[in-house]
Write a structure and sequence with these properties.
This protein is mainly alpha-helical and about 160 residues long. It is about 80% helix and about 0% strand.
Length: about 160
């Protein structure tokens, strides 16, 4: 009885996520990757504390995959220069910490990765807000003069 409603909810969530991905900007896609990595790492922490070894391993593998195949793969080191190289090193470090946490059942490494991902996500979101502020504060582009439109200054004289 409940299985069909659970499957329906999962199908709806999958469609909603796929629609979000299809309509998201590149900036929003990176935020989605951060969210996915954070959720997977939190799930790994929960499963580690519950001693669910298989589920812990799956969650850690998912987090590593998102970091390596999503976040790291999206870096353009030619354009991003030093920042992209530093982020690449940080992502590599996080993946390594996740592997070590899995091998040693070390919750502190998972907590460290969650903190790093959360800080990076917060900074990434701030970049988007700054871009919006810059666009709003930018001087308006003067419209091209249209000789057929009325000249307000000559129509209204005080």
């Amino acid at each position: 009885m409940f299985q069909s409603s659970i499957n329906g909810a999962r199908a709806y969530a999958k469609i909603e996520m796929e629609t979000g991905v299809a309509t998201a900007s590149p900036h929003q896609l990176i935020v989605m990757l951060f969210d996915g990595a954070i959720i997977a790492t939190r799930n790994a922490l929960k499963e580690m504390r519950a001693a669910n070894i298989a589920d812990k391993g799956q969650a850690i593998s998912k987090a590593i995959s998102i970091i390596d195949c999503g976040l790291r793969a999206s870096l353009d080191k030619n354009v991003g220069g030093e920042i992209a190289n530093n982020l690449d090193s940080l992502y590599e470090y996080m993946s390594h910490q996740l592997l070590l946490s899995n091998l040693n059942n070390d919750t502190s490494k998972l907590e460290e990765v969650i903190k790093l991902l959360s800080d990076l996500k917060e900074a990434w979101c701030a970049i988007d807000e700054t871009q919006g502020e810059i666009a709003q504060s930018a001087p308006a582009v003067r419209p091209v003069h249209d000789p057929l439109s009325p000249n307000i200054s000559t129509l209204v004289k005080a």
